[in-house]
């Protein structure tokens, strides 16, 4: 009995260590402009559906887990039942589902391992940067635990200075892609649960005290760059300098007791960022020995009654929704080519805006939208039936919101933070989302907060009166008249009743069509049917007085395990305007024509 108690106690301590480590990850802002050693490439992997490498048969954490990267030494009789060196490899970044036919539907634990050389610089610290790992990740370097992370679509950084040494090192990452009802997202979604280390991995070195977070944006009056810079572990009174060489602007400011330096640089002749002129300025930041460079656009974005104002002028968001799925090859999008193809198609459509659904996309995407002048709706995966009553789930959502905003706060193209998609209108949910809305504003006061809401329907009347709307700056609405409800022609007689005097965006509408399938426009799954829905929808939307944008569902067909009609869907959601092999459907040209028509969606 006594022995059993000791084991349980030991387990708790180790458990506690992991729980504590969970919060050890952080987000180093602008990390893609920092000096780093890439760890992308081929990693050995072991598929471990029973978590054998982590737990004993009594589900206690193993002291000799796979994180030790052990292997049977020649001549030794020690029992070792795994060997990374003899195991196959997976590409990192990359989901495992599209790299191995055996892993296509696999949603469990996979161990990743590789060696790397590292020469630590004197008076420097080292962080492991992971662009994203779906869904839970546990990380060890040289057999020592570094950190744990939960959430499949946000970047995180873990300090590894203590665990690293000069010369040959090894890293082991356990990634568990199991869907969880109390996860964010919850267990049921309409997208494919690609598992693995899906975005870049690198080692980043920084000085002992370093800039880890900042907010630099144009003030409301557009007369000054304002914000702050946070320096981690800085000596008091460290001076922070922010400079904009091209505009001959700079300021120095001292840290306060919370290691933050507030920044204010009068700036009245900056070229403002806009889709027409996506001007980015090279920004130089320094604090003590740490130096950092970024590229930032300066613009103001706000609402005024039913209008959205960019740099003080009303705008209409001509957009499209997209998933982070790679065109042609499939799987998670994670390289410049994927991003270039998706945004080129959005540009061809005539978009000045994209909705990145339903989770933060790769940083490459938001750097590219900054450069190309495409405004962005960015979202965390609080999707459908989350466990809104569970405080632990709120904590997970808040964690992802913080990671999302820290990574992308410096992106001028992002104009909307979306806190949810199609969630049930219940008191627990509304309270959960009211909290997230205020968290988003606390993290970033310079952008608008939104969510994709469902609407109440009575006959031909649509009521946008979800009480959460009061906490949003812009009302997002998803509707599928002509596909999930009614017929395309019923769209024409639909009457909208919007309770709030705020800008409204139709964040989703659409219909499925199999590329190349043709028939009467009354025949579902044909391109003609989808095009017909678009024509009716665009006519209706043009009649909604407070409509200020749209992002039809969706740019490209994408994988979804919920779409199972043989010979038609075959595991794909076919609401794309383009097939995943790049075939443009008739509806693509219907929308393109509408976005070129200056009379449509004309702001009064
Ligand atoms: C929903 C949801 C999407 C989904 C789409 C569809 O509105 O937000 O994630 O894919 O509808 O049903 O096609």
Describe the model.
- The protein has 604 residues and is α/β, with parallel strands linked by helices.
- Helix content is 18%, strand content 30%.
- It is built from 7 helices and 33 strands.
- The chain has an 8-stranded parallel beta barrel.
- β16 and β17 (290-296) form a beta hairpin.
- The longest helix has 21 residues, at 2-22.
- The radius of gyration is 25 Å and the shape is globular.
- Mean pLDDT is 95; it is low at 7-22.
- The protein binds alpha-D-glucopyranuronic acid.
- Alpha-D-glucopyranuronic acid (GCU) is lined by residues 190, 358, 421-422, 478, 508, 553, 573, 575.
Number of strands: 33
**Helix/strand/pairing category:** alpha/beta
Distance linking N and C termini? 78 Å
Shape: globular
Q: What's the story with the biggest beta sheet?
A: 8 strands, parallel, barrel
Give the % helix. 10-25%
Ligand kinds: alpha-D-glucopyranuronic acid
Low-confidence parts lasting 5 or more residues at pLDDT below 50?
A: 7-22
Radius of gyration: 25 Å
Give the strand line-up of the largest sheet: 21-22-23-24-25-28-30-31
Alpha plus pi helix count: 7
Report the sheet-strand fraction. 25-35%
Averaging pLDDT over every residue, what do you get?
Answer: 95
């Amino acid at each position: 009995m006594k022995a059993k108690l000791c084991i349980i106690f030991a387990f708790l301590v180790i458990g506690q260590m992991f729980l504590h480590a969970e919060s050890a990850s952080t987000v180093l802002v602008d990390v893609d402009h920092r000096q780093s050693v890439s760890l992308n490439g081929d990693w050995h992997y072991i598929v471990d559906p029973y978590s054998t490498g982590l737990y004993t048969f009594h589900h206690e954490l193993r002291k000799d887990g796979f994180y030790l990267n052990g292997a049977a030494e020649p001549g030794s009789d020690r029992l070792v039942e795994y060997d990374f060196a003899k195991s196959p490899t997976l590409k990192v970044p990359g989901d495992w589902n599209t790299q191995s036919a055996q892993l296509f539907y696999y949603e469990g634990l996979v161990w990743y391992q590789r060696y790397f050389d590292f020469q630590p610089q004197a008076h420097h610290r080292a962080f492991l940067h992971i662009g994203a790992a779906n869904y839970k990740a546990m990380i060890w370097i040289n057999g020592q635990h570094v950190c744990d992370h939960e959430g499949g679509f946000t970047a995180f950084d873990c300090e590894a200075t203590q665990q690293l040494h000069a010369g040959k090192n090894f890293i082991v990452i356990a990634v568990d892609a199991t869907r969880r009802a109390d996860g964010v997202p919850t267990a049921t979604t309409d997208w494919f649960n690609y598992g693995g280390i899906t975005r870049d991995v690198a080692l980043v070195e920084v000085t002992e005290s370093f800039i880890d977070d900042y907010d630099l944006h144009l003030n409301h009056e557009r007369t000054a760059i304002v914000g702050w810079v946070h320096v981690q572990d800085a000596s008091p009174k460290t001076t922070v300098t922010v400079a904009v060489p091209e505009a001959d602007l700079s300021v120095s400011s001292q840290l306060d007791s919370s290691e933050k330096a507030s920044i204010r640089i009068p700036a009245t002749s900056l070229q403002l960022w806009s889709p027409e002129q996506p001007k980015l300025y090279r920004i130089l930041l320094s604090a003590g020995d740490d130096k950092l460079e970024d590229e930032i656009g300066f613009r103001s974005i706000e609402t005024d009654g039913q209008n959205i104002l960019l740099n003080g002028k009303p705008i209409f968001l001509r957009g499209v929704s997209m998933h982070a799925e790679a065109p042609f090859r499939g799987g998670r999008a994670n390289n410049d080519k994927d991003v270039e193809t998706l945004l080129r198609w959005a540009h061809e459509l005539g978009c000045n805006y994209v909705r990145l659904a339903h989770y933060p996309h790769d940083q490459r995407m938001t750097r590219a939208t900054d450069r190309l002048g495409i405004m962005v709706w960015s979202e965390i995966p609080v999707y459908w039936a989350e466990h809104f009553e569970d405080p632990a789930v709120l904590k997970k959502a808040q964690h992802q919101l913080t990671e999302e905003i820290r990574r992308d706060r410096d992106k001028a193209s992002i104009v909307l933070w979306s806190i949810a998609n199609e969630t049930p209108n219940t008191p627990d949910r509304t309270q959960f989302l009211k909290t997230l809305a205020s968290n988003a504003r606390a993290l970033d006061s310079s952008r608008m907060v939104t969510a994709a809401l469902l609407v109440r329907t009575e006959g031909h009347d649509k009521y946008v009166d979800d009480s959460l709307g009061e906490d949003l700056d812009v009302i997002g609405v998803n509707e599928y008249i002509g596909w999930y409800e009614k017929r395309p022609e019923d769209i024409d007689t639909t009457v909208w009743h919007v309770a709030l005097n705020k800008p409204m965006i139709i964040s989703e509408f659409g219909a499925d069509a199999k590329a190349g399938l043709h028939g009467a426009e009354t025949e579902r799954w044909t391109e003609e049917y989808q095009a017909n829905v678009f024509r009716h929808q665009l006519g209706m939307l043009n009649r909604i007085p407070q409509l200020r944008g749209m992002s039809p569902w969706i740019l490209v067909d994408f994988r979804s395990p919920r779409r199972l009609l043989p010979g038609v869907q075959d595991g794909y959601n076919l609401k794309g305007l383009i097939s995943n092999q790049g075939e443009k459907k008739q509806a693509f040209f219907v929308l393109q024509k509408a976005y070129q028509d200056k009379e449509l969606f004309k702001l009064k």
